[in-house]
């Protein structure tokens, strides 16, 4: 049986594998090119690990505004519903490959919720007639 997510180390493992999927996907890579080109991937992974650590374990390490960061990125590279579908799919796949349990389900539920809110804020649910 797979263990549940129980530490920041587990979250970092998830983020590292998750980004392996994202960076290998040609439709997702443009969102991360600047981070990779500036050799900031490891720093970025630490920041998002802090974000998820706060969510799962009620820490207070993440000091940025996740929504604002994505809205700023959207001004240069437009997010589409398909990007969020891929993001959620890779996220779930990564978690499910190594973990199961209450924290695993909580992390997936929060990821789905965050993706939905971001799409709403970016007006991606509007009817495009």
TrEMBL record:
Q: What is this protein called?
A: Globin
Determine the domain of life of the protein's source: Bacteria
GO MF annotations in UniProt: heme binding; oxygen binding
Q: Which InterPro entries match?
A: Globin-like_sf, Globin/Proto
